Amino acid sequence: MRQKNAGNAWQPQYMQERKLKKMPASVQKLQQMAIYLGIVGGAASAVMYYLMQKNFAKSQYFQLAVEKLKVHEMAMDSLGAPPLKIHNIRLTDRHNHVDKERAKLKIPVSGARSAGYLYSFSTRDAILDRWHLEEALLQLKDGTSFVLFNEKEEIEADRAESGDHIFNN
């Protein structure tokens, strides 16, 4: 037997009853599933973010830059360190890029007096499977900059000290 529903379309009675009985339960289950998946997805994202930050902090190219900062007395004094706080890098920042051959990072750092960014550029020696720091620079929020390390300047200084001018242009 067919009955008329509110939309002026004819449907069998069992279909109307089935929709009325099962629809609320399905919607409730879908809502529960959406909430559950949202929580699981959010937790998975947080864990992934934490692990990525941990991997950056352990990496050789990250450690080389931080070591250069720690031994630079004027930069550490300007920050008001120790204690030196190294914060998580912003994964979406365009200054942070790592591939197989190069690592370019913008590491947020702070001390008791000031804060800023430690910029570093490193290259990887494929033969030795090691990272080499090419350049490290500390830029404070007040605009003060410290060149912590520049490999080209170090090489030139070493050549000048040793009297080796053969390779100079």
From TrEMBL:
Keywords: Membrane, Transmembrane, Transmembrane helix. InterPro entries: Coa1 (IPR014807). This is Cytochrome c oxidase assembly factor 1. The chain crosses the membrane at residues 33-52. The keyword Membrane applies. The gene is COA1. It holds the Pfam family Coa1. It comes from Erpetoichthys calabaricus (Rope fish). The keyword Calcium does not apply. It comes from the Eukaryota. GO terms for biological process: mitochondrial respiratory chain complex I assembly; mitochondrial respiratory chain complex IV assembly. GO terms for cellular component: mitochondrial inner membrane.
